[in-house]
Amino acid sequence: MATLTKEILIDAPADDVWDALRDFGALHEWLVPGFVVESRLEGNSRVITFFNGAVAREVLVGVDDDARRLAYSAVESPLGTTHHNASAQVFTDGADRCRFVWTTDVLPDEAGAPIDELMERGIGVIKHTMESHSVRR
C-alpha cells in the first residue's frame, strides 16, 4: 500500500483553516477553488469534479472537531484504486499560523504516483487560498 503524506505551514489561524476543511460539501468554494471546480453532497458522500474534468465520489468517514481532523474514503474515481482512504488535520502553530497535514493510503501501489502529484498540487492551492484574505469567510 502506498502511504502519501503532505504537510505545509499556512499563515492563517487554525480555526479558519479548519472551518474550510470541515465544510465537506464546499471544498470547491473555501479550501481548493480551481483545483476542485464542483462539489455536491449526496447523503454522507460528495461528488467532486477536478480541474481536469475527473469526477470522484468520496464518503465522509468522520469529523473530529476537537482534533480538527476529517477523514474520507474515495469510493469511485477514474484512477482505478481498490483502496483510497485519506485524512486531513489542522494543528495550531502560533496565533496566526497552522500546520496542515494530509495523509492518504492507496492501493494499488501504482496509483500512488498520480495521487501524489494531485496532492502536491492540491496542498499548494490550500495554502494559497487560506492565506488569501479575499477568500476567507
Task: Give a structural overview.
The chain has 137 residues and is an alpha+beta fold. It has 3 helices and 7 strands; from the N terminus they run βααββββββα. It has helices spanning 14-22, 27-30, 112-131; strands at 2-10, 36-42, 45-50, 55-64, 69-76, 83-92, 98-107. It has a 7-stranded antiparallel sheet with strand order 1-7-6-5-4-3-2. The model has no long low-confidence stretch (mean pLDDT 94).
What's a quick, concise take on this entry?
With 137 residues, the chain is an alpha+beta fold. The protein has helices at 14-22, 27-30, 112-131; strands spanning 2-10, 36-42, 45-50, 55-64, 69-76, 83-92, 98-107. Strands 1-7-6-5-4-3-2 form a seven-stranded antiparallel sheet.
Which terms would index this structure?
globular, 24% helix, 3 helices, alpha+beta, 137 residues, 7-stranded antiparallel beta sheet
